[in-house]
Amino acid sequence: MTGTHSRVAIVTGAGRGIGAAVARRLAADGFAVGLLDLDEDGVRKGAEAIVADGGRAIGVKLDVSDAGEVDAAVSKVADELGPPTVLINNAGITRDNLIFKMTEQDWDSVLGVHLRGSFLMTRAVQKYQTEQKWGRIVNLSSTSALGNRGQVNYSAAKAGMQGFTKTLAIELGKFGVTANAIAPGFIATDMTAATAERVGMSFEDFKKAAAEQIPVRRVGEPADIANLASFLVSEGAGFISGQVVYVAGGPKD
Ligand code: NAP
Q1: Would the pTM of this model clear 0.70, i.e. be above it?
Q2: For 224-253, b where at least 16 C-beta lie within 10 A, e where not — what string?
Q3: What is the Å distance from ligand 1's center to 120 Cα?
Q4: Active-site hit among 31, 107, 154, 186
Q5: How far apart, in whole angstroms, are the C-alpha atoms of residue 138 and residue 121?
Q6: Ligand 1 pocket, CB under 6 A
Q7: Which residue, judged by its Cα, is nearest atom 6 of ligand 1?
Q8: Cα(78)–Cα(107) distance, integer angstroms
Q9: pLDDT digits (tens, 9 = 90+) for 146-186
């Protein structure tokens, strides 16, 4: 990246798991980072750790599906760190159930966090990106976008993230803004630990069984996603836009 671009990144869902790893990695790459999450304690600790390592970071509590909170949080990052030009839409939840047992609340909350949340965040951040004539958007999709039993809500949301990404790439490209999606397979985080619990398996056994189905014979770690996010927001990735990259230890589409 040249010195003329704002090096301020926002990562949602940065309180733990993949978002926390991406925030740490972007800070190591030289970005000032706004860590945003429902979990105030998680983002405060994450920001403190980055500052202790000599970086710049703030933690901000928000619900990404609340328009007022989103606008306030993005303004706070802009005021305290500078105009945000990198956005990682990572906040996510699962509310798994077979369709005959799925409630409207399960459906609305999952689409609300992933799709409405990413829309609200991107609408707020693109203002700074287009002003700066440079930006990078990375959206978290999932291999579940291709279909996964018990996840009609989540797979619809994650497939939606792919269309959202491609349209952002088309609309914002002329402003120097790229948009890409990362579609992880099995990544060891609290989210997959909760799935193990739901199906009545220990997390160790669940990971072992998953690894047997993955060509590289291991499950993913948050750093596997952070490595790609780091590249996609770099200057060198400026001609890659509207793509979905599966990070799943094997082919998925
Ligand atoms: P995680 O460990 O459950 O972390 C998700 C974070 O998002 C949590 O800190 C959570 O806060 C936060 N969050 C949830 N709802 C929010 C909201 N409305 N506003 C702000 N923050 C909110 O999940 P992860 O495994 O790191 O997953 C990160 C992303 O990758 C998600 O989009 C997920 O769908 C995607 N993904 C994960 C996997 C995987 O195998 N782990 C695979 C494919 C895709 P609280 O702690 O307060 O709930």
Answers
A1: yes
A2: bbbebbbebbeeebeeebbbbbbbbbeeee
A3: 17
A4: 154
A5: 12
A6: 12-13, 15-19, 37-39, 42, 62-65, 90-93, 113, 117, 140, 142, 184, 186-187, 189-192
A7: 13
A8: 33
A9: 999 999 999 999 999 999 999 999 999 999 999 999 999 99
